[in-house]
Amino acid sequence: MAEVLTKPSRRIRNMVMKELRLIIKDKVALLLIFLLPAALIGMLWYVTNQSSMGGMSIGGGGGIGGGVDTGNATSSAVILGIVDLDTTRTYDGEDLSENLTAVFDTLANVTLFNSTADAYRALYEQQIDAYIVIPDGFEANLTINEPTYIEVHYDGNNLLGSASIQGIIQAGTILFRASKLWIRSEVFPGVIIEFTPEGGYLESVFGGFIVIFSSYLGIAMTSAQSIVGDIPLRRMLLTPTSRLEVVVAKVIGYVIIGFFQSLLLVTLWVLAFNLSLNTNFISLVIIMSLSSLTGSATGILISAVAGTRLQANQMFLFVLFGTLILAGFFIDVGILDRILPMNQGLNLLIDTAFKGLSLLDVIDRVLSLFGFSAAAILIATFIFSRKPTLG
């Protein structure tokens, strides 16, 4: 019985070793897997260094930038939290902090909080997109034409929503002043970006996108040829080797390559930008390896469906552009953000490296990635088993 049980594992091990030897011999594949992602991080490092030398500030952190088109700033989809701490009543008319809140309520969906801790927690759990703190003395300062500051807190990882948030804040302060016909009185928004590691804003957010993008699609690109392009596999299938063993062995082989790619990407990302992430290095490698697992399973599924190498390339390009479009950086993808593997991998990286959660805290995302990989492997096996011959 023990010998029967060890035969499949021995066949899988031998096929994994064969797959690794083929990958190592393929210099172009190694170039795409390791050098190209490293080049992307190098380009980001060059851009950020050139920007800092030129005196430019990328990403934010100082204040709401000018030049925002307030005419298109309103967005009912933005959920804005407001913490009103002002207790002063020096203005003859209505309460000014309540008046400012009412103005923002016309531009976004406003949620009121009693404390900054409650608002911070809501932002942390993505129940709101940003929150404003109206400090004590707000009305008193405005009454005597003193500069008045409000704090704007938003999630630094919400690139898609940050422009809308900035536009709403600027439009709200302008409309508030215009409603009182004030010229000298100013309301200055001070921006505080939450949930980003110590280091550059652009380096953290876009660097995280690059490493997840590379670990997922880089492995998917090479594994997309692994079945349809494996001519010796015809002879192997004449032996007792099952189709499931073939698929599992190929997935494992590319996950091993993805593991070493993850070590390289994470090391370059952290060292090149001197980042101080809110998680440990082992957790980062585990997350990246999970992303490689989903990439490997995706590529194997493409290779099982495709009948020729050309079809595999075309299907991969479809997955590539679809993944980029639905990554959440350009459009709001809604519920798909909780389903698509690269989105889940990026959210998992953000939750751990930026927000400081442990892997146990985000176990639902981990299980989601495992579930996607298992489903892709089973579907690939089913499709592969229905093929009488290889194309």
Q: Major beta sheet, specifics?
A: 5 strands, mixed
Secondary-structure class: alpha/beta
Dominant shape: elongated
Give the total of domains. 2
Mean of pLDDT: 81
Record the strand order, biggest sheet. 2-1-3-4-5
Residue runs with pLDDT of under 50 for 5 or more positions:
1-5, 55-75
Helix content: 55-70%
Query: What's the Cα radius of gyration?
Result: 26 Å
How far is the first residue's CA from the last residue's CA? 37 Å
How large is the share of residues in beta strands? Answer: 5-15%
Count of strand segments: 5
Structure annotation, total helices: 13
Topology pattern, helix = H, strand = E: HHEHEHEHEHEHHHHHHH
Overall description:
The protein is an alpha/beta fold and 391 residues long. The longest helix is centred in the middle third of the chain and has 31 residues, at 243-273. Helices cover 61% and strands 8% of the residues. It has helices at 2-25, 27-53, 96-107, 116-124, 138-143, 159-180, 201-223, 233-236, 243-273, 281-305, 309-325, 341-354, 363-385, and strands at 79-84, 109-113, 130-134, 148-155, 187-194. The protein folds into 2 domains: 11-50 and 200-385, no CATH class; 70-194, abc type-2 transporter like domain (abc type-2 transporter like fold), CATH 3.40.1710. Helix 6 links the parallel strand 4 and strand 5 (187-194). Mean pLDDT is 81; it is low at 1-5 and 55-75. Helix 3 crosses helix 6. It has 13 helices and 5 strands.
